[in-house]
Structure formats: C-alpha cells, structure tokens
Amino acid sequence: MKLSKTSSNTQHFYQEELKKLKEAGNLRTLPEVIHDGKWVLSGEQRMLNLSSNDYLGLATDTALRDEFLGSADNRDLLFSSSSSRLLTGNFHIYTQLERLLADLFGTESALTFGSGYHMNSGILPAITDSRTLILADKLVHASIIDGILLSSGYSIRYRHHDYRILETLIQKYHKNYSRIIIVTESVFSMDGDVTPLQTLVELKNKYPNVYLYVDEAHGIGVRGAHGLGVAEEQGCIKDIDFLCGTFGKALGSIGAYVVCRERIRNYLVNKVRPFIFTTALPPVNIAWTKFLLERLSQWDDRRQWLAEASSRLRTCIREMGCECTSESQIVPLTLGASEKAIEKAAEMQRKGFYVLPVRPPTVPEGTSRLRFSLTAAITPEEISRLIQTLKETQNK
Ligand code: PMP
Question: pLDDT tier at 46 (50, 70, 90 boundaries)?
C-alpha cells in the first residue's frame, strides 16, 4: 500500500523521535516480566525482585488473599463497577472504605480515585484558578507535574527541599495571589528522601491563604505508628489540607485517596474531571483495599524490618563512596550516564538481582541510577548477599 504524503511524514517523525531516544540511551521497551512478587523468572534464572512497590509484601501474601476470599461476601463482589461513581458506580463498599479512611486519619472525610495518577492530575487543576499560585518541589512526580500543567494557576518549582527559597517566594507573591498551594511528596519516589512536613506546616501557618498538598504515595503503609505515613510519624496529619496517597504500593491494591475536610470532598466530587469522567474501580478491589487497611496497624514488624534492611543498604552505598540522600526503602545508586545505569542493571541481573535502571525523563539528565525498591519480604540473608554483590562489583 502506498502511504499518503502526510502519513509518510508522520512515520518519519516517529522514527526520528525513536532514533533520538535510542541514541541518548533513553529508549524504553515494555519488558514482559514473569514473577510471583518476590522472584522474577527469566528462562532458567531466578532473580530477587528489587523493583517492586509492594513494600509490605501484602500484594503477594497468599494467606491474606485466602482470608479475603474465604468470606462469601467478598466472593460475591463484582469485578466491574460498569459506571462512573456519579452514575451507578457508587457501591456501598465505597462509602465504607471512605468512612474507614476518615476514621483512621481522624479527618472529616475522604475520597478515593482510580489511581494516584488520576488523583494528582485531577485534584490540582480542580483546586486552582488564575489567582492561585502553586509552589511545587522541583522533584515532584510526573502525575503532579501533569496536574500543574492542566491547571490554570501560575506555578513555580522551588529547589528540592529548599525551604528558604520557598519562604522567599511566599513573601514575594502572597499579596498578588488569592491562594498559594505548596505541593510536595513525603517520600520522594526517585531519591527516597523524606520531607520535613512539620517545617512546611510551620511555614504555611505564618501566612494567610497558604495551603499544603502532600502526596504520600511512598509513605503510606511504611511510616508512622499505625502505618498512616510520614504525616503520622511527624504528628501533622490534621495540619495538611490535602493529604493524599495511593493504594497501589505498600497497600497492595490499586487506587488512591485524599483525606480532607467534608466541604473539600464535596467540591472535589463536583470538579475533579478524572474522578467524574471515569469508570469507578471494581467493588472487589475496593473491598480488598478496605480489608488491608483494616489490618494496617498490625504490620509494625514488617515496617521495622523494612526500615532496618533499607538502612543496611543505604550504609553500603555510602561506604562505596556514593552520595545517597535516601531515608527510606527507596534507595538509589546514582551512576550518571544512562549507559552506565543500563550496564550496571544488566550486571546485577546476571548476578540474580532484578534491579532496573532509571533514566531521563524520569530523573534529571546526568543522574541515571539503579533504583532499589526494597520490600519487607527480603530476608536478612538476601540483603547481606545483595550488599556483598554490590561491593564485589564496584568499579568493575
Ligand atoms: N505519586 C507518586 C509520588 C508516585 O510515585 C506515583 C507512582 N509511581 C503516583 C503518584 C501514581 O500512582 P499510581 O501508580 O497509583 O497511579
């Protein structure tokens, strides 16, 4: 078949773009990964999965799954909601989950979303107008950046964790805007460092009409006395205006939530487009999330072991002479060029550790890295073997 001129130009455009990505070492392909959660299988080889967000090992805990399916009520649940929540998708299990979230966090209400991506890309445009200024940490996740891009507010990204600059910006602009929204993550997804939320709370309280939006995607489940995240650990749940998190990581499910004031929830139900114009998550998923959330406070032993294993890996990386600002289960080994990260990941995989390279645009240019994402399912022997292998392969 002969291609029209427009169509062949388009093909050329795609080819050129793919070529550029390849030349920069940033071409991505979709790996088909066979794994049972803990082990990734490739032919005869079995590799320890160090790239999972199942931080507490809940998603693959067969005993929990059996308990959940042991209840006839759960077995009867639908696998599709077949509608948006504003039509016929708002099953009673949603009310139960959102009530549970609000009770756990001690807030007035909660609202759930299809995913963390829906949540961030939906809430931020909904809560801003042309008189709103968004001040976001430089390293926030792509879903937050997309939310900012879709919003009609003005935005500035401040240097990562630089609260002096942040305050200068607030002082400079707070009279020009009707509202300022500070946006941050609690545990940063690529560096694993933790935000001093209390400092941000103190800062926002110094000025009128400054609000705080926190994404706890990597903090929920793993931090805090009851697993409610960094905000719980730092004692500031009630001081955060929009406290958000996801269910797809430590909580072993799918979806996301914001806990907030009742009137904010009512507003979001009316304004968040990725909430309104999408099919609600299946009731069976919502029930599974609720089932896990009800047990969250029980898993302190898993949280403690995860913290200890992560601390051992961070110490190893620092002893290797690499800078590592992580304070969590996300532990990067920054290598610089994309090629270096790709080679090192391949080497670790040959040695039985499934760790992946992270490259631009996910991380800034020149900071390609291996991103170790530990889970509580790792054993003391496995973490020792990982550390030993990293040391043995250093500078090879
Ligand atoms: N926020 C952060 C900080 C994340 O790291 C991610 C996922 N990597 C998301 C939001 C998106 O969450 P979800 O996977 O549920 O869409």
Answer: very high
> Ligand 1, from 53, 143, 220: best to mutate by most atoms within 8 Å of Cβ?
143
Of 117, 123, 146, best ligand 1 pocket probe by most atoms within 8 Å of the beta carbon: 117
Over its C-alpha atoms, the chain yields an Rg (Å, rounded) of 22
ipTM, 2 decimals?
0.99
Q: Which residue, by CA, sits nearest to atom 15 of ligand 1? A: 116
For residue 111, give the nearest of 287, 258, 267 by alpha carbon.
258
Q: Which residues line ligand 1 (CB under 6 A)?
A: 115-117, 120, 141, 143, 185, 189, 215, 217, 246, 248, 256
Tell me the C-alpha distance between 121 and 273, whole Å: 9
d(CA 184, CA 280): 27
DSSP string over 169-210:
HHHHHTTTSSEEEEEEESB-TTT--B--HHHHHHHHHTSTTE
What distance in angstroms lies between residue 18's CA and the mean position of ligand 1's atoms? 26
pTM of the model: 0.94
- The end-to-end CA distance of the chain, in Å, is 51
What are the backbone dihedrals phi and psi of residue 74, each rounded to the nearest 5 degrees, phi first? -70, -40
Spell out the domains of the chain, with CATH numbers in brackets.
Answer: 26-56+299-392 (3.90.1150.10), 64-297 (3.40.640.10)
CA distance 222 to 376: 10
